[in-house]
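Hi support team,

I submitted a single chain yesterday and got back a structure, but I'm not sure I'm reading the token output correctly. Could someone confirm the output below corresponds to the sequence I sent? I've pasted both exactly as they appear in my results page.

Thanks,
R.
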Amino acid sequence: MVYGPDPVANRFDLYTRADLRPGGDGGAGSRAGEFGAGVGGVRGVLVHIHGGHFRAGAPSRESRAMLFDHARRGWAAISATYTLSPTPEAGFPQHLVDIKRLLYWIRVEGPSHGIPADAPIVVAGSSAGAHIAMMTALTANDPRFQPGFEHVDTTLAAAVGLYGYYGRLGSATRDVSDPVRHPASGAPPVAIIHGTLDTYTPVKGSRRLVRHLRAGSPNPVIYAELPGAQHGFDVVCSPRYLAVVDAVARFTDRYA
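Hi R., thanks for writing in. Yes, this is the structure output for that exact sequence:
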């Protein structure tokens, strides 16, 4: 499906239970309600943003189990792509604008796909996608990143970061692309998970962001380090990753 002006960059896959889709039978074989989806249908939206150093990647590789688990439990699960670029700083802030535009699409077009206009939205990301997820959480309703749709409320119910890079994107963007340079006072509940043996995006970056959030956010900041885990721990459906899937489900159930 397409959510923006670029039919290649602005794409996403949407996963929902059949009984929660418009025209779904909801009959005797339906499992609606078993996992908490109320009478109103879809209980919330989980958006996942893929990684790939802002220059590669696709919405079909990471966090599949997390997406499918949320869909099974009555959520609308979205795996989205965004504008890629030769370097991270060359693509900033367009990739952030793209994801905010996706939030706009959810609010306006979501109801025709069974998503209530006021459904809580959680944005999660892996690696580079985690950077975008945290920037989305920390810049809600910032007109600099919502050109042409400044009126749209882009506040999140919660945000999740998996093995993310949370620094600035090159010298040209300076502090504006660094999540810790944005006030934490408006941050939603956040969960950050990182492996201690990550050789691509060292765990110290997550620790830095957690300190910033806990110093200024009025909402919960959940942080977990996975002993011995490397980058990309959500690509393979291992027992450790299934534990992460369960933890994220508990987090979104509680705070979204």
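A quick pointer for reading it: Confidence is low (pLDDT under 50) at residues 26-39. Let us know if anything else looks off.

Best,
Support desk
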